[in-house]
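ok trying again, last paste got cut off:
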Amino acid sequence: MNFTDILGSVMNQGMTRSGNHRIEQSVNRGNGLGDLFSSLGGGASGGGGLLGSLGKMAGSAMNSGPGGRGNPMVTGGLGALVGALLGGGGSSAKGALGGTALALLGSLAMKALQGESGSSTGMSDSSSRLMAGLRPPENEQEARQVESLAELTLKAMSNAAKADGSVDQDEIRRIMGKAAEDGLTSEEREFIQRELESPMDTAGLIRAVPNHQIATQIYAASLLAIEVDTDAEWRYLRELASGLGLSEEVTGQLHGALGVA
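nice, full thing came through this time. structure:
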């Protein structure tokens, strides 16, 4: 089972109707994500080529202003971005979606933590870049680390989706249908359904988060998993932020980047 592929599919389709719109807004909002992608991805080559292209496109979108609607990073969300990079679907596109999803979450987290500390210190080392999706794994151990992070991120998104009760069955059918279209295996689709239908376990999720960087990425993913338009969802986010030890400055940065008022 490939958790990175599953994450890419879920984020590409959006666990909520507004998910991809928020991603587009984060790039078009002028919050510096384009510069982060470009500067942190500059050394990538070979397997990391996606990140370099992503950085150039994000930077171009950032510089185009509100009228830059011809840029796929602005107009098409995550799906159109990957389509533009790879020229179509298939297994290569499926793999790229997961890498792009992790890089997006990692860059959002890095930007938020940079705003808190005034510098990027603590997230510029090789291990931090790996877990932020800003460089490809170089060996099997690193690949397993990335897969574990993708699994944890999926669990966080599924947990958040239940914040106002249970996940609507129509939404589950929509997500499962798109997962099948994306070429996920029956085992991978069963994982998504099992997570969406299992009881909430916020305490267990928080215990599984190893450090401040991952905590920030997990919170960003959770924001993309819900509409944040009910009191229950706001209470959940406050509980999650408190449990993860995230400051109001960091969560505020993430809310601003993703257009969550």
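cool. The CA atoms of residues 207 and 239 lie 13 Å apart. The chain is about 70% helix and 0% strand.
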